[in-house]
Design brief:
two-stranded antiparallel ribbon; 2 strands
Length: 120
């Protein structure tokens, strides 16, 4: 953006900022755990802007026969099951196939996400 003032940051400033973010994240996690315990005991909390509580999330797991039935019913409904199904990266990694082999079958999609990782 034009006219945007960009403050200079040194490497030392960036390290301090990263450490402060880690401290704030740890404090936030602890606060959420405390609120979670309260909500477990007394129910949801309405702040006037949002509701903190336990909300259900639903997912389905199918065995191989169930997957066959899902695919069969998609075809009956005029839906191509191959356009609906994906193989998660974790499952692909377990197969031990390298990128070159996978490129013969599909297109690699890489996204970048800003995050921290523990040092090894």
């Amino acid at each position: 953006m034009m006219g945007e003032l960009k403050l200079a940051m040194t490497h030392e400033d960036a390290v301090k900022l990263a450490n402060e973010i880690n401290r704030a994240d740890a404090a936030l996690k602890q606060m959420k755990e405390q609120l979670k315990e309260y909500v477990k005991d007394y129910g949801s909390i309405n702040t006037g802007q949002e509701v903190w509580g336990f909300f259900e999330s639903t997912s389905w797991n199918f065995d191989r026969n169930g997957l066959k039935e899902v695919a069969r019913n998609m075809v009956i409904d005029g839906v191509d099951p191959w356009e609906q199904m994906t193989v998660p990266k974790k499952k692909l990694d377990a197969l031990g196939w390298d990128d070159k082999f996978l490129e013969n079958m599909g297109k690699k999609n890489v996204t970048k996400r800003f995050a921290s990782r523990k040092q090894i």
